[in-house]
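S.,

Sequence below, as promised.
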Amino acid sequence: MSLGTTTRQPAARPTTLTDLLRAGLIALFVASGLNLVLWALARYLLRLPLHLPSRPGVLDLAPASPGQIVLVTALAAVGATLVWGLLLRLTRWARPLFLILALLVLLLSFGPLLALPITPAEQIVLGLMHVTAAVAIVAVLLRLDRASG
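The prediction came back faster than expected:
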């Protein structure tokens, strides 16, 4: 390389809808799988029944089922994937904005959790599930940015 010559970095490949959908599905499966492991450990190893509202907006509690765990985790993964896709399209600062939004949503998710009439042990396990899902979803979606860049 001679002095005064610059090397050009290859242009980043734009993120396609297929890439985004693939990353969203991977995030959903990873986060759901980890949360199901935590649910099973709490239920069978710690003998701690986790309770969730039987339906949205009602404080009628029912034992948490694997289906509920996957459904709630899937909602988080779909929401995060949509936000990530929009940020990638709309701004050059998608990564830092996404991290800030993810942290805010995670912190806000603790509010309803702490308001549930459940034991502190249940709150800790459910809170750990929130953190686990958030970290897994964000990590997978941000990996998409690195893989496509």
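Confidence is low (pLDDT under 50) at residues 8-13.

Coffee later?
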